[in-house]
Amino acid sequence: MNGPLTVGSGPVLEARGLTKAYGKKRVLRGFDLEAAAGSVTAILGPNGSGKTTFMRCLLGLHVFQEGSISVLGEDVRRGPAYRRHIGYMPQIPSFPENLSVREIADLVSRVRGVKPDFARGGGLGVDAFLDQKWKILSGGMKQKVNASLAVAFDAPLLVLDEPTASLDPASRLKLVDLLRAEKSRGKCILLSTHVLGDLWELADRLAFLREGQVRVLKADSIPGMGTDIGLFERSVAAELESEP
Amino acid sequence: MIAVLRFCLKDLLRSRFIAAYFLFHLAAGFALMRYAPTASAGFGALLSLILFLGPLCSIVFGTLYFYQARGFQELMLAQPVGRGALLAGQALALAIAFCSAFGLGLGISTLAAGFHGSGDFLLLLLFLVGGALLHLCFLALAFLIALSVDDRLKGFSTSLVVWLVMVFLYDGALLAIITALSDYPLDRFTIGAILLNPVDLERILVLMQLDASALLGYTGAVFRRFFGTSLGIGAALLAMTAWVAAPTGLFFWKLRRKDF
User: Fold this and answer.
1) What fold characterizes domain A13-241?
2) Above 0.90 for ipTM, yes or no?
3) From A80, A94, A110, residue closest to B75, measured CB to CB
4) Contact B206, B223 (CB under 8 A)
5) Residue of A24, A105, B171, B224 with fewest CB within 10 Å of its CB?
6) A112 interfacial to chain B (CB closer than 8 Å)
7) Any residues with CB less than 8 A from the CB of B127 and at least 6 apart, and which?
8) pTM score
């Protein structure tokens, strides 16, 4: 797919009244969230606030009790086909350790039915270790493969969980540049991270999760956004610690 | 599912454990069949080895494999592939790798060590089919345990307890019951109890084809009357297949509601 992505007038991601409980513990309570094409939405919240739970519900890893999630209008509970619209980058990637990076890409491409375009993540330099086995790659190299695979299939929605966590500073900047380019091409990016510098550079909206509910703020409305990273970090931290 | 099966099998066939498992069966099979005084004695010795090691290796490796693959499963489940297809691909790959290492290792070594007649060939076939079903049963139990218990330590402990019960404690309890109630006719009860344990099924199936069954006296005669016939062999293999199907079915049923 070349050029900016057009997805019609509806949101790429839409969650309505989402409720998820583990036994008696309700983690998400009537959670609503929308995300549009060409935007970066960051999900923030203290530990146990439901960030991971929401992402897992979106990816079909968790089964939620009430509400709905749709990706480009496709209900996530109607089978796995909607996930062709998603490029996912988990915090700790894991593949069969005796497969090479090329074989892993081959496996994912066969499952998706689309050939990967590693040139999209060219700055990350994955080409250099395509024939190395997964088990000998370092944590940073694995994360680069992970990032390249997430963008290689031109999916309209990118779901990224702590994407820069194990990257060196140079690779982190390359990934931030890559994500900025993907956003400009119309991708909808959903990001969960504790690295506030990533948000300062990328985010359009910040979704604060507290006790299973969400409050979405425009990134521009956060003091320091785009001007003073120190002030931005303090403002976000204050928002995280404020009463729901 | 085919793509997952193909690549997971490729990964497993390159693993040192599967290679070691194949070489172990090759070496043990050749040594025991080559140097045992009779084929029957060789199979008897091999049987003890298989009944102890096969379930242990299957349930331990199966449990660890599932836990280690959790990250991969989560990543793959974010792709357009169903839970059932992904897990079926992984389980089939593991089953093929294990059964191939066991079957080829023992099959090649036994054939290389020499045969005494067509009876031995049938015995080998029964030995391999029963052994493969035993491996499949414990792999299915391993997957079911690992899916049901999220805590790795608890899951691993549960697997070891299941192995211990099925390989040792079940027989001990059965023996205690038979001894305590020796004044009563327990033939049907004993046959029924054996049908409920796949390890005993494989043991009895093979023992009944060996000369050693003559040493079992009256009990041996009763067992031989059932397990020595085509009907008995069929019933035993069917019971072993049920032991594979039941945990597999339960695994896929639980999988539908599982939070990864």
Assistant:
1) Rossmann fold (3.40.50)
2) no
3) A94
4) no
5) A24
6) yes
7) B43, B46, B47, B50, B106, B206
8) 0.84
